[in-house]
Amino acid sequence: MSAEWNDEQKPQVQRLALSGFDFDCSCHIVLEVEDASNARKFLGSVLREQGWVTFGERDRARKDGGEDDREPAVSIGFTYRGLQALGVPDRYLNELRAKALAFCEGAPARAASRLGDAGPSAAERWAPMFAFDRAHVLISIHGPNRGAVGSMRKRLAATAGAGPGFKGWEQGILSAEHLTKDKENRTVHFGYRDNLARPRIVEKDFAPRKLRHRAGELVLGYLNDEQFNRWDNRLTAPDVAQFFRNGSFAVLRKIEQNEQAFNDYLDEKARALHVTTDYLKAKLCGRWPNGVRVMPPPPPPPLAQPSEPKPEDGFDFNDDPKGLGCPFGAHIRRTNPRGDSIAPPRLRPLFRRGMPYGRKYSDGTKYEKRGLIGLFFCASIEDQFEIVMSEWVEKKPMGPRNLGNAKDPLIGHHDERAFFHIPQENGPGIKLNLSEPFVTTHGTLYALFPSLSALRDIARLESAASLGAQPGDARRQTGAPRSGDSTGPEHGST
What we know:
The protein is α+β, with helices and mostly antiparallel strands. It is built from 16 helices and 16 strands. The protein has a domain at about 10-255 and about 445-480. The protein has helices spanning about 15-20, 35-50, 80-85, 90-100, 100-105, 105-115, 145-155, 160-165, 240-245, 260-275, 275-285, 330-335, 380-395, 450-460, 460-465, 475-480; strands at about 25-35, 75-80, 135-145, 165, 175, 185-190, 190-195, 200, 210-215, 250-255, 350, 355, 370-380, 420, 430-435, 440-450. Helix 2 (about 35-50) crosses helix 14. It is globular and about 70 Å long.
């Protein structure tokens, strides 16, 4: 079995993980397995529906050039408890316990120590759907509008096995929608341009600091940027290696953003410092609200807008070694250090597939709940997502001239007496006190999005048992992959 990543592998990977969708709406349903037999029946039925669950990179084509009338796409992931509840064999679960501890322990158990979630964001305050023993299966639906997504959700809930197999079809729903229909200029709450940094996996010429990564940073079973393959098939049984190959781990995270508090804070500090709120927003993020990164002066002077209107993607920070443009503690510099001279030797790429929820903020409106339904894909939750959160977001930022001790100014859980440092060419720079967080975590879920062949194997667990497998026939008893299984996208592909 080759460990080389190539185009032949892509039809095995769920498209949400591999490249995401350009749809405007999404819905994530967190389900609890009540009856494993019916749950597996449901999974088999969904996989047999041509085009529901999508794999590979091909996007759905519009039927005409007008209104987006594409069919929604379905993606399916499982928590560790979900795999247990569905009857996945112990030898697969043992492999997870050996190689994916964070996934097995679950987000609630690691929230305080690895994610910084405490106080109002503590795991015991999360929505009930995120409870470790409650969250088993994550079904994500992406579509062109709310109606299409809602219709697909109803079709799924009416599929054979859905009702008796799961509970949560009406209670475990997280809906999200882009704030604008303009796909080239999408924004998120707090008023920033979105979808600018787009890491991707490549077969050759990988350059991590230019957002090009080896497949093993996203997909299980391949070399990562450090040329290490934790899921190397030479180190484990072939059928177990095949089961995990082409899968990907995901972190689903609901984060509420208090935009009123954020804007009030900016207004107060801007008046005191005699600068614009956009200047402060740019320094906190590392990009101006229109997406252009903050460069060392001159230009632009503190009160000006950026002179270059085109956002950049593949840049590094070597032209800003003192943090005079983008401060060391800014959101983009600490979560994606790129080619920064002070960056750690190993970067930790995350492949973002999330959307905002709630209406776009406007001044003068009453308080409404809004935020982000974050969905982050990676090949190792502990080595990628948790390192970014615990070491880069929730701790003092890197940088020789950084004097601040604040956490990430946009998504960190701030402490009292913490301050954000804006370096200046002359003098000690600007200190911004950050004592109250602008975000609250309402839940986090760790999931595995298996490959097409692994999804089929999970669905076949029931039929294998019903065939009366002999005690010595380990493959038939467990639903393990068989050498004759097709690797093509015959069912549920685009």
